[in-house]
């Protein structure tokens, strides 16, 4: 007969390849990239970036999906903080939270910049950090 039951010892799982990112940022990035790995959710983001704001019915037509399926994708994106919505009558209109999205991507790229020249060398191109004195202008919504 067993006289005592031992509590399971919690295991600490270390990341096999430390990223050097703060845990909170890493978790947010993982969540957003997982969401965007789905083709429908990526298309939703692209449509909303191009159009600025769309209601669920318009997204259903563009994606050729049912309203429950599109609403599920929208709820996941909204819960992750990627989308905003507003209600107008019986329509919910969605838009990308550009500031949040840009901040998240900015933090990612800032953590990857070379300390010497504030650039990130990729295979075919180089990203350089611009001075904050001259931030890039937002392109018109139709582009």
Describe it for me?
This protein is an alpha+beta fold and 143 residues long. It has a domain at 23-99: Arc Repressor Mutant, subunit A (Orthogonal Bundle). The protein has helices at 23-36, 39-51, 56-63, 67-79, 98-112, and strands at residues 54-55, 83-88, 91-96, 119-121, 126-128. A three-stranded antiparallel sheet has the order 1-3-2. It has a two-stranded antiparallel ribbon with strand order 4-5. The N and C termini lie far apart (73 Å).
Report the β-strand fraction as a percent range.
5-15%
Give me the side-by-side strand order of the main sheet. 1-3-2
Task: List SSEs in N-to-C order.
Answer: HHEHHEEHEE
Q: What is the name of the CATH architecture of one domain?
A: Orthogonal Bundle
Radius of gyration: 21 Å
What would CATH call the homologous superfamily of one domain?
A: Winged helix-like DNA-binding domain superfamily/Winged helix DNA-binding domain
**What is the CATH first-level class name of one domain?**
Mainly Alpha
Q: What is the makeup of the main sheet?
A: 3 strands, antiparallel
Summary, kept brief:
With 143 residues, the protein is of the alpha+beta class.
What keywords describe this structure?
Arc Repressor Mutant, subunit A; elongated; two-stranded antiparallel sheet; 3-stranded antiparallel β-sheet; 143 residues; alpha+beta; 44% helix
Helix-strand blueprint:
Blueprint lengths: L22 H14 L2 H13 L2 E2 H8 L3 H13 L3 E6 L2 E6 L1 H15 L6 E3 L4 E3 L15
Antiparallel strand pairs: 1-3, 2-3, 4-5
